[in-house]
Amino acid sequence: MARSSVLPVGSDSRAFLVFAGALALALFVVPPRTDDLDWHLAVGRDVVREGAVPRANRYSFTAPDQPWIHHGWGGSVVLHLVERAGGFAALSLLAGLLFAASVTLVFLRSRSLPWTTAAALLLLASHALKPDALATNIAAALVWLLGDDRRSRWAPFSMPLWANVHGSFPVGLGLIAAADLGARRIPWRTAVAAVLCLTSPYGFAAFIPAWRYAFDPRLRSFLGELGAWQPPSGAAAVVLAISVVLAIVLAVHARPRPVDAVVAAIAAIAAWLAVRHVAVFAVVAGATVASTSSTPGSKSSRFFLVTGPALVAIVVVAFVVDPPGTPHPPFPTRLLAEPRPGRLLHPHAWGGALLAAGVPVAIDPRNDCYPPRVLDDFLSIHRGPRGLGRFVRWHRIDGALAPSGSSIDRGLRALGFQVSRESQGVVLLRR
């Protein structure tokens, strides 16, 4: 008799230890990145206060009233509400729990400790306080649901949550479609999932950001300049290469369905193209390496059921007793003292912190609300004095906040701007 993919009791109980280990790793060893956090908190605050999602840009003077679909509005709201309830410590705990849950779901689907270890290392590449973490967790849960016919009927109902949390939800729709194709059944699950995606307040327009990120050449050119959209390098590339080889070796033994192997291969290619896709490969490949013939032992189930929850409790209590401190802004706050420019030029990475401080920004961590000309203009400021001069002239820049000695600092001084304040950064004002 063919064995069901539902896990034996022993394997289920070991998930507690996997969860505890992943939680400890996330809370005490690798804290989450906070590069876009200020921006998400600000937007989430506005959505909660006004009771409506934004339809146009209101945060950047370079593209006022530009139509905008905030595909991660739900994630921003979640981050804002958690921060309001418990501060930065609560946000860090949320990030740790999401990471641990994703790793555990990978284990439950793959039933492979080697692959779970590799997936945990891959997921660390995207361990950050942003809606992406919520989307990764939903993706891991969806892959687990699709691993069993009895569970898969509930898979489409994950899509309303994903469609309102992060714009990557078409990936989930593709996973459900691939599962229907692999099972050679009428794709009613895919049809239901597609309809449920429309629960987003943007309706059909919610699909537009994903289309732009995939096919808009101007936007992709801009994304290519940002770290998360660049190919993995250094240690991340080594871990990804080892993980791909490990997935192939495990898949040879597991003999997955062709459709699962194809999905994993597509995810692996995407991961090599951009670091931000590594997490998708980590959770998707679990279906490829899972062996339906393996039978984990259950003799020590009681041991795992007792020690696992105890270790989880110890990790959480230790974190509550000694929570992390709030991260410092990327620039000294004293640089924001008056007088300061009304139309400020600044590095892209500083836009979120400035927005949270109530300072009008030229560009912020979003990429999809700016028209092509603004994106081209912003890229040009690092290519030479002509591009910087054109940006200053067209957008009526009257000052800047930038790292000392940066291309913005040097370029604006050459254009006649004068230093107003300097402290690990510089404020420049037009004469």
Straight-line distance between termini = 83 Å
Structure annotation, total helices: 20
How can the largest sheet be summarized? 4 strands, mixed
Question: Residue ranges: pLDDT <50 for 5 or more in a row?
Answer: 1-10, 293-298
How much of the polypeptide forms β-strand, as a percent range? under 5%
The gist of it:
The chain is mainly α.
How do the helices and strands line up, and which of them pair or pack?
Layout: H1 9-29, H2 37-50, H3 73-110, H4 113-123, H5 131-145, H6 149-152, H7 159-165, H8 169-183, H9 188-196, H10 208-215, H11 217-223, H12 234-254, H13 258-273, H14 278-284, H15 286-289, H16 301-321, E1 344-345, H17 351-356, H18 372-380, H19 385-394, E2 399-402, H20 407-414, E3 418-422, E4 426-429
Describe the protein in words.
The protein has two domains: 9-216 and 297-318, no CATH class; 333-429, no CATH class. The protein is 58% helix and 3% strand. It has helices at 9-29, 37-50, 73-110, 113-123, 131-145, 149-152, 159-165, 169-183, 188-196, 208-215, 217-223, 234-254, 258-273, 278-284, 286-289, 301-321, 351-356, 372-380, 385-394, 407-414, and strands spanning 344-345, 399-402, 418-422, 426-429. The model is unreliable at 1-10 and 293-298 (pLDDT under 50).
